[in-house]
Amino acid sequence: MPARTVVITGASSGFGRGVALSLAQQGCNLVLAARRSRLLDQLAEDCGNAIAVTCDVGDPNSVEKLGAAAIAKFNRIDVWINNAGVAALGPFERIPLEDHLRVVQTNLGGAVAGSHVALRHFRQVGSGTLINIASMLGRTPAPYYASYCASKYGIVGLCDALRQELAAQDAAGIRVCAVLPMAADTPFFDHAANYTGHTLQPFPITDADEIVAAIVGVVDEPQDEVTVGLSATAATIAERLSQTITHGATGAMTQLLQDDAPDAPIETGNLHRPLAIGTGVHGSILQRLDMERQQPRP
After folding, report:
1. Which of 6, 50, 64, 197 has the most C-beta neighbours closer than 10 Å?
2. pLDDT for the residue numbered 252
3. What is the pLDDT of residues 35-68, one digit of tens each?
4. Which class is 5-293 in CATH?
5. Given this model, what pLDDT does residue 51 score?
6. Nearest to 5 by CA among 50, 64, 63
7. Residue 234 to residues 72, 213, 228, 230: CA-CA distances in angstroms?
8. Which residues contact 119 (CB under 8 A, 6 or more apart)?
9. Cβ–Cβ < 8 Å for 109, 157
């Protein structure tokens, strides 16, 4: 059986990097995409049978070129993973509109563009797996994450609608999967634009390796929708039982944690240009939170 060819966006760090390294061990052909060319080149070298394609998923033309590069190198695409994502966190009206729109352009627009390229190819060959990385914030919202939630709700809806289309057209060989993780210890929070005036205080935090394993599991055995971790499962059940109570509780918790956090300067993160920091699978959020909790409060 020939090696599968997998396209991964947002591959330079976090989930994308972890999935790439794991799939490389399975012998997959990899097409690695992100904005940070140097990191991609090194990752492609580490993975073996892989190519690096510098790509800003917020630009549909860049995504088209990514698909073309994959076909030119490996002749086909078996799995496409839309993983790239950014965030601008803080009170909605304090965040510049251009930053909100950039979040939607990258997260939802990137998923739409990647899905469009992937499904056109899957239709031609009669099979394939599309995996969109959403979030539990695509089911249960949180204050200070407005545009991020909007983008992730959009991704969940995109997946639902595409599955309906494929079922109606009897395209059983094509799968559309959504992965919904909770906040994780990746460089995501090192990269996020922060307009809260405080250090970011996500809770609960899931281990990045657990989410990487879940994404790889969907590559191997596609499922329509996967939540990762006990906290994500609990949130899903609570949402179904009582949306009002669940939204009220998560909103109050997020507000309390964030308002009580240490002060921090406003930062635009990696929204408009990539950052040098945050290059691994894991990030610094857990270490920072532990340090903050150990410091005496005034």
Report:
1. 6
2. 57
3. 999 999 999 999 999 999 999 999 999 999 999 9
4. alpha beta
5. 98
6. 50
7. 44, 20, 10, 6
8. 128, 130, 162, 174
9. no
Which residues, in sequence order, are CB contacts of 154 under 8 Å at separation 6+? 104, 107, 108, 111, 138
- Token look-up 């965030």 returns 87
Stretches where the chain sits below pLDDT 50 are 245
* Angstrom distance (rounded) from CA 30 to CA 47: 8
Residue 240: its pLDDT value, please? Answer: 61
Nearest-CA neighbor of 263 among 239, 220, 214, 297?
Answer: 297
Tokens of 257: 């944690």
Q: Decide if 82 contacts 178 (C-beta within 8 A).
A: no
Which residues belong to the active site?
148
Angle at the Cα of 90 from the Cα atoms of 86 and 91, rounded to 5 degrees? 135
| Cα–Cα dist 164/60, whole Å | 24
| Structure confidence at residue 2 (pLDDT) | 85
Q: Which of 34, 45, 90, 145 is nearest to 265 (CA)?
A: 90
Q: What is the CA radius of gyration of the chain?
A: 19
Tokens of 284: 């610094």
Structure tokens at 276: 């040098």
pTM of the model: 0.83
Identify the DSSP state of 58: T
8 Å CB contact between 277 and 190: yes
Give all strands of the β-sheet with 50-54 in edge-to-edge order. Answer: 50-54, 29-34, 5-9, 79-82, 128-133, 174-180, 225-227
- Helices 60-74 and 110-125 sit at what angle, rounded to 10 degrees? 30
What count of Cα atoms within 13 Å lies in the side-chain half-sphere of residue 286? Answer: 11
How confident is the model at residue 124, as a pLDDT?
96
HEC secondary structure over 19-45? HHHHHHHCCCEEEEEECCHHHHHHHHH
Give the span between the Cα atoms of 104 and 258, in whole angstroms: 23
